[in-house]
Write a structure and sequence with these properties.
alpha+beta; 22% helix
Length: 89
């Protein structure tokens, strides 16, 4: 059986990491940090947008800022054509 994560990578998904700074509801002067990581498609980031929409609806801590990093794990540069074969005996 093939891993679901591998199938997502073949469809163009890469590893997305988001640093989410938010304020505590009872102490608005304090910033907290939450790190989120999942497979997503750049540059639209539909999975991250869905998570942030859920955060705004369900979590009381208002968002301060979000920093996003994305890395495609399977890239065309990792494949190269072979010009020939060498056989030894």
């Amino acid at each position: 059986m093939v891993s679901q994560d591998f199938l997502l990578q073949l469809k163009g998904y890469g590893l997305t990491t988001a640093q989410i700074h938010y304020r505590l509801p009872d102490y608005p002067a304090i910033l907290q940090l939450f790190v989120w990581q999942d497979y997503d498609v750049a540059p639209d980031f539909p999975v991250l947008k869905g998570f942030l929409d859920h955060w705004r609806r369900e979590i009381e801590g208002p968002l301060h800022s979000v920093r996003v990093a994305h890395q495609g794990l399977i890239k065309p540069s990792e494949w190269r054509a072979v010009d020939g074969e060498f056989s030894i005996h």
